[in-house]
Structure formats: C-alpha cells, structure tokens
Amino acid sequence: MIGYLNIILRLTIWFLLTGNFSIANIIIGVCVALLLPRSYTAPGALQDWLRVLWEVIVAIPQAYLEAFEIIFRPHNQEEVVIEQVKPRRSPGLIFLDIFLITFTPKTIVLKYHEQGWYEVHRVQRRKRT
Known about the structure:
This protein is an alpha+beta fold. It has 2 domains: 1-38; 44-129, no CATH class. It has helices spanning 2-18, 23-35, 46-72, 91-103, and strands at residues 77-84, 107-113, 117-124. A 3-stranded antiparallel β-sheet has the order 1-3-2, with helices on one face. A hairpin with a 3-residue loop joins strand 2 (107-113) and strand 3. The mean pLDDT is 84.
C-alpha cells in the first residue's frame, strides 16, 4: 500500500511540474514514477501517510487565513527556529512535511539537516511591550 502512495506522490509532483494532462504526458509520468529509484529505508506507516494527507487538506484554508492576516495586519518580526523531524519518517513523508511548512505564507523551510532537523524561517507580528 505504501508503494502505491509513493507512486501517487511522484505522479502528483510530475503533474504539478508539467501542468499537462495529455495522454503522452501521463504515460511519461507513469514511466518516470516507476523508474525513479526507490528508497529502502523503513516505509512510513499508512497511518502516518493518512495523517499527513489530512494535514495537507487542513493547510489550504490555513494558508488563506495567514495570507489575509499578513495583508491586513503586517508582520514585521522574523525569526529562524530549529524544528525536529518526527521520528521514523520516510523520505516521502519528510518531503510532505517540508511542503506543509513551506505552503503556509508565514513559514518556509530554509534547510533540512540529515541529523533530523529543519531550519524554519517565520514571520510574525511584533509583540507590543
């Protein structure tokens, strides 16, 4: 089951990059998804995949809310924080985690450290003192 999720993730990325749903592009995308080397690390559990897919669905309205908040209430303070990667993450799940962090307008992943850390840049409202 996890193998199918990896192929679907690869196809989704392919279609996002190409923006073309012609028959030839679909065939090329399937070939690319199947020919890309597979990771032989511990596969992510189906529950982890479903949780991340739910987080993607929730992130869409959150991104709109953050965008309007930035427009109407400027955010002048910036910080770079280090966040730890959740344990036992496959490369596909790490990619989706980075996508989720970067998808919202207030945060972006600057760097992923192989030791299990993300450097995340955040903007926030200046706290009144």
